[in-house]
Amino acid sequence: MTEAIWSRGGGGDCIRLTGLPAGADVRVFPGTAVPTVSLPPMAGRLERDGADLCFVPRFAFLDGMSYTVTVEGTSAAVLVRPRPERPATTEVTGIRPTAGEVPVNLLRFYVWFSAPMSEGYAAGQVRLARDDGSIIAGTLLPTEHELWDGSRRRLTVLLDPARIKRGLPSHQEAGYPLRSGKPFRLVVGEGFRDAQGLPLRHSAERRYEVGDEERRHVDPVSWELAVPPAGTCEPLQVIFGRPLDHGLLARCLHVRGPGGELVDGTARIGPGEQSWQLVPSRAWASTVHQLVVEPVLEDLAGNSVSRVFDRDLTRSEDQSRPARPVTIAFHPG
Amino acid sequence: MGEFRLEPGRVSLRSAGPITFGPAGILFMADNAAATVFAVDVADPGPAGGAEPFDLEDVDARVGSFLGCGPGDITIKDMAVHPLSHNVYLSVQRGHGDAAQPVLMRISVADGAIDDVPLDEVPFAAVAIGDAPGEDDERLDTTLPLGDEGEEMQFGTLKIRLLRQPIRTATVTDMAYAGGALLIAGLSNEEFSSKLRRIPFPFSAGIVGSSLEIFHVSHGKWETAAPIRAFVPYDGGASVLASYTCTPVVHFRLADLTDGAKAVGRTVAELGPVNQPLDMVSFVQDGEEYLLVANSAHGLVKIACRDIDSQSPLTEPQQPVGVPRETKDLQGIRRLANLGGSYVLALQSDDAGRHHLRSLKTASL
Fold this sequence. Notes:
With 333 residues, chain A is mainly beta. Chain A has 4 helices and 23 strands. By secondary structure, chain B is mainly beta.
């Protein structure tokens, strides 16, 4: 009579088998029964431990998974790997943009989570919905490659660019994913799993109004600067005149002093991603400073400082601009 | 493997991603979590492959059984066929979240036997990739790791282990080896751009290669840039056909891509609305070179290379657009790889979500 239990051995978790005849053919299969079709057994090795045999897997047993042990081709035991019971604690901490109104050719959202997440759930759990709760299908880019930051806490969600780019069949046939004047919500379902495999505490959403299309370059020269007094640590305020991309804003704006040195301080993105400020860690000197804008900085529709999202070759104002930083001089007074 | 500057050691993969074979059976493996591409001598044990087809039902269930999990815990990220033995290599993610584990699998075409390829002590080289955060981006996201990752910090009497990882990342979507270089297409999680990275191989310390932005024109009116989703070199590596997340198929010559210069590819076809290109392969039929494109919404699309070369840039917005193409009634094909000269191996998913390997005879495509 063979008995099989979870145990430790061979440097890790194992299945300990007792009462086996010497030289028995032991195999382990994932699942609750011996597979009816020919499947390879789970990779691992058998180690003798006293009178027992230990099956030590090459790849760790998965929580919640059942394993069937066969001896001489016949099922001898089914073991279920326990799954630790834990409450759901992860939640959505932010959905960007935070602007109340977005252009009809909006390109991108960012969803922030409070803990690292599992990949593979974005397509099923992130969706656009109308005010009546109905799903707006075919709007988000269906991608095999989810776009996460290094710690899997920020997910980038793209609207289907084929429906935003003018001239492509998708845009001509189906139009923009959004409709001007028709509000919508970005919804993150609670079925999105965190890295522990647990669902979210609750779903999350953000509602947007939809405005007209935005096809212009991001133009730093048109920005409004509120220049701080010299000798103070009051913030430099920059007002864009339209919302810009939250992710890029966080790295595309810098201030340099008269010698070209970076002005250290605390940068903050303003409400609705319509402004930015820098509080210096040392008082402003009474001299010329430069606000440096990286050319890849984009607005909500993917237009950047150097190029518009899709350039109409017949429009001179759409022409690409040099892909180098734009500098704006200011003098703390 | 000295000529390729491979050194023995452990390939510490953090994630499973695209794979492709380079010279002398060296496998390039993209690790998006680590922002690294590894070049690995996989020491394929097989004899030279013949001209036979290879088919395998339920490949995900078989791989899952070997790895001790169900098919739902298996994500096949990419597939490559060894150029000499024709053994099939799968880049597999086992499990999800913190339990996720990248595994390189090898399937013998001789008998269908499945095994993993240990990466503990293999000749390899590595290179940092894409728009990996670096000199211009110091933003890091800080989390508390479960294991021993990260660094230990002292806060008063309290010691805490913190893991700091980049916010800006680049995700490799496809790779190919051509003309002595590894070509890498990727998606940024921030800016929307079309970057193709070219890294000379063997990798050299300090050389990260060049980054080429490729624009394309639709209907002679709209010039756009978009991330390349899949691409394939052809014409002996002189030309590249790339398909975009927004479905245009664009041709450019590698020789035309010079560092720092703006390159404009030629749109030669569009694959249709609500569709994503998934993979591309080139093959020879009756002495002529053809390209095969796998799509999310359509069957396989076959395009003759000579039609691409003679195609003028698209000027008319009407359908059908672009070069003549045939659509093969083969649905659910997600990956393609050459299986010798006589077959193309396809990874196909069926309506039940199961995955199978199918050989498509090039003479019949």
